[in-house]
Design goal:
Layout: E1 8-9, H1 11-15, E2 28-32, H2 40-56, E3 59-66, H3 69-72, H4 84-93, E4 98-103, H5 113-122, E5 127-133, H6 146-156, E6 159-163, E7 167-168, E8 171-172, H7 175-183, H8 187-194, E9 198-205, H9 210-213, E10 219-222, E11 232-242, E12 245-257, E13 269-274, E14 285-295, H10 303-321
Parallel strand pairs: 1-4, 2-3, 2-5, 3-4, 5-6
Antiparallel strand pairs: 7-8, 9-10, 9-14, 10-13, 11-12, 11-14, 12-13
Helix pairs in contact: 5-6, 7-8
Bound molecules: flavin mononucleotide and adenosine-5'-triphosphate.
């Protein structure tokens, strides 16, 4: 496994058949799916798989795909709720032992359900049980479904369990529903679906340092891989991510936008004013949990007016996040 990655890639292995299984694989319960964001429905399937693995003396594994199958199928890639590394971290937090990733390329997209079940699930991952949600589809043209998996298991020697869909009065929780909530700036709805606030991540970059002159220095996050909510101002909880640890850092008032008060045609930035924090964070890896949307981005007549509004945002951030834990 590549150092520092909480998951293991199956790409070469699945293409070079004679190389056999990845090392040290044990008889397993395998949860299969994109699992983007690991929302509450995914979490229920994962927890149930971990319990069954314990009961039956098996190892609980995840098999997921990268990039998202849409890319190969000619559809635009949906914005990511969580990176592969974060998905693996969340799955492991629920008790999953190993997370395997199969590169989803044009060739893999042509695999029939039988080949998928036989070559990947049984021969590589030693699956004795497969755990999926009722709506799971797999194989070329998405022709495989739960009953297909049951039939395949009967001939290949594994048991398939379908977890009842988990949801609320508006329907099952899904990655698409979480994306729609984020796109609408409904961070409480996103949190309801995900079971935790949507999080952005990135490395702190140099900004224009204008924030200092107005009394609100900000950390600028570069290359955020996760889906951004719409431009505007948000109350956030900020953590610092280290190689083997994640630590609470500060409450943050975050601005996403093009800063119309400062200039015309500026690039979009994601920047956070950290409350009660003083220190150098250039190069630090941060995780920003987006709890609530405060307002849209506005163009103020001058920096004094912007400064007064940011002070209000900060007070509002404190109020909203009072008593909230990281
Ligand atoms: C809580 C907060 C709210 C902000 N709201 C706005 C806004 O409504 N309009 C705007 O033009 N810029 C807004 N900004 C962005 C500021 O213009 C920006 O922080 C400032 O220009 C400093 O930029 P710098 O990173 O280049 O130093 C906001 C920033 C923060 C931290
Ligand atoms: N609400 C849910 N309850 C139980 N299981 C679910 C739920 N949503 C998805 N699953 C199961 O979790 C696994 C991974 O699902 P996947 O990430 O592919 O779907 P999804 O969350 O519905 O995403 P999308 O909205 O992009 O279709 C599948 O086995 C799927 O059936």
């Amino acid at each position: 496994m590549a150092k520092g990655l909480p998951y293991e890639r199956l790409d070469q292995i699945s293409e070079i058949d004679e190389s056999g299984a990845p090392s040290d694989v044990r008889p397993s319960v395998v949860v299969v799916g994109n699992l983007d964001g690991i929302h509450r429905g995914h979490a229920a399937v994962l927890r149930a798989a971990v319990q069954r693995a314990e009961r039956d003396g098996l190892s609980p594994y995840v098999l997921t795909f990268d990039p998202h199958p849409s890319v190969v199928l000619g559809r635009p890639e949906p914005p990511r709720l969580a990176t592969l590394a974060r998905r693996a971290e969340l799955a492991k937090g629920l008790g999953i032992e190993r997370v395997f990733v199969r590169t989803f390329d044009g060739e893999f997209a042509t695999w029939k359900p039988l080949r998928f079940a036989k070559e990947l699930l049984v021969q590589k991952l030693f699956a004795h049980e497969i755990s999926i949600g009722q709506n799971f589809r797999f194989g070329a043209g998405a022709e495989g479904d739960f009953s297909k998996m049951v039939t395949l298991g009967e001939s290949l020697g594994f048991v398939t369990t379908a977890h009842a869909l988990v949801g609320d009065e508006r329907g099952p929780f899904s990655s698409s529903r979480a994306r729609a909530a984020i796109a609408a700036g409904q961070m409480d709805e996103a949190e309801h679906i995900l079971g935790r606030p949507h999080a952005l991540s990135g490395v702190v970059q140099e900004g224009r340092k204008l924030g200092r002159t107005i009394g609100f220095p900000t950390v600028n996050l570069g290359n955020v891989p996760e889906m951004l909510p719409p431009d505007g101002i948000y109350a956030t909880l900020v953590e610092q991510v280290f190689d083997d640890d994640v630590r609470a850092l500060a409450l943050g008032a975050m601005s996403i936008g093009v800063r119309p008060t400062v200039g015309e045609g500026l690039e979009r930035t994601v920047e956070v004013f950290l409350l009660d924090f003083d220190g150098d964070l250039y190069g630090a890896h941060l995780r920003v949990h987006v709890v609530a949307r405060l307002r849209g981005e506005e163009r103020f007549p001058d920096l004094e007016a912007l400064k007064a509004k940011i002070a209000e945002d900060v007070a509002e951030t404190r109020r909203i996040l009072a008593g909230r834990h990281f």
